[in-house]
């Protein structure tokens, strides 16, 4: 007889390969056993422990889809299952991992030289070299094509000097390797530069943290301030120019967020269900007995199930080379929006206790607002989809 499991309504796990199930199990066990016990203190104190990247590296969770260079070379669906497991605990932990894997290792693997891959990827896969991705600037977030950071050819012929500022950059205060996107002063073409912190002369690179965030507090965020910072020619990504460079890495990171936010929503659903079954109001009934509470649970379970199925299909298409960026915009937008709406509705199930961080729901809600904003705010993804539907761009 067919059964219904509200934790996996469409039996999505039957679609995953043995290897994907094993990767998922590793990531779920690590996340629940090693991350969950740390998250409250990390969020309260706005403290990211960079050993977490080393721990993830030991388990093969970093740059997991990359083939060779010390990486696991697993499928896109397996990588999605990793982000789902980590974000089930906290979006900030997933963020630090996504930036390392999709936004720093990914572009080196896709657009770097063999020498760059050999130099950086094995250390990054182990979490010994921490990366970040500098695209957003104080005056240019949704429209990175207007960036002001500039790379000038050095008079001594030894590469470039970078000047400008990037803001809201995950991992920047702790990063050893900063991938900075800048416009070449002579042509205006956008190029990616691998800035090695330890090689920057004093005063040319600063990465102040942005403190007192009200979401993503378990990850570290900062600025990148560059003042004639020298970068050798061999640290430029040679194989790509223009916005295609940063955006192609964003496809992978946005795909990871689509899975990750479903993990966060599933955690909210599990916690709210548990709470509703235990909390009694009016004649000793559990509040789970009341229709309005059940609707909130049903909505969230449905959104999580649909979100996982759509992400699964896009993951398979990525590996077959058949995924258009608009597909990724669609799942990124939908899953972030539905996770935020669902988490916010489930927050109400906890009554006054939702105001205590011990119940974890408020932390997910404040994190999910950020996931809806970074990597293309949801309205920007609406416009990407609107352009694909109508052929008319509505950005400006
Ligand atoms: P547009 O004309 O659309 O495109 C310019 C060039 O880029 C190519 N392209 C893509 N290539 C691959 N994948 C994609 N998804 C691509 N999107 C665009 C495009 O084909 C074109 O190539 P070419 O060769 O013809 O020049 O450029 P536009 O300036 O009109 O772009 C508009 C818009 C809104 C789509 C774009 O600017 C956008 O996506 N804005 C959102 C910005 C964003 O997502 N920022 C993310 C910053 S990183 C971050 O948030 C990390 S948080 C990480 C964490 O902590 O988890
Ligand atoms: P704006 O671009 O100023 O947008 C503000 C509002 O206006 C949004 O609602 C937007 O949708 C809307 N809007 C803008 N243009 C249009 C339009 N044409 N039509 C309709 N509506 C429009 N960036 C990085 O490069 N690397 C990182 O690692 C990184 N990590 C981040 C971590 C955190 C915690 C946060 C909060 C942000 C991070 N970001 C990072 C930056 C993030 O990508 C940007 O915040 C995001 O792209 C939006 O840019 P903005 O904040 O400048 O908002």
Describe this structure in words.
GO terms for molecular function: fatty-acyl-CoA binding; flavin adenine dinucleotide binding; glutaryl-CoA dehydrogenase activity. This is glutaryl-CoA dehydrogenase (ETF). One of its GO terms (biological process) is fatty-acyl-CoA biosynthetic process. There is one protein chain. This protein is of the alpha+beta class and 396 residues long. 49% of the residues lie in helices and 13% in strands. The protein has 10 helices and 9 strands. Strands 3, 4, 5, 6, 7, 8 and 9 form a 7-stranded mixed β-sheet that branches. The chain has a two-stranded antiparallel ribbon with strand order 1-2. A hairpin with a 6-residue loop joins strand 4 and strand 5. Helix 4 runs antiparallel to helix 6 and helix 8 runs antiparallel to helix 9. The longest helix has 35 residues. The mean pLDDT is 98. Bound molecules: 3-thiaglutaryl-CoA and flavin-adenine dinucleotide. 3-thiaglutaryl-CoA binds next to helix 4, helix 6 and helix 10. 3-thiaglutaryl-CoA (TGC) binds next to helix 4, helix 6 and helix 10.
How would you summarize the topology of this molecule?
Layout: H1 18-45, H2 51-58, E1 67-68, E2 71-72, H3 76-89, H4 91-111, H5 114-125, E3 131-134, E4 150-153, E5 160-170, E6 177-184, E7 190-196, E8 205-206, E9 221-231, H6 244-278, H7 291-319, H8 325-347, H9 361-373, H10 378-390
Parallel strand pairs: 3-6, 4-6
Antiparallel strand pairs: 1-2, 4-5, 5-9, 6-7, 8-9
Helix pairs in contact: 1-3, 3-4, 3-6, 4-5, 4-6, 6-7, 6-8, 6-9, 7-8, 8-9, 8-10
Bound molecules: 3-thiaglutaryl-CoA and flavin-adenine dinucleotide.
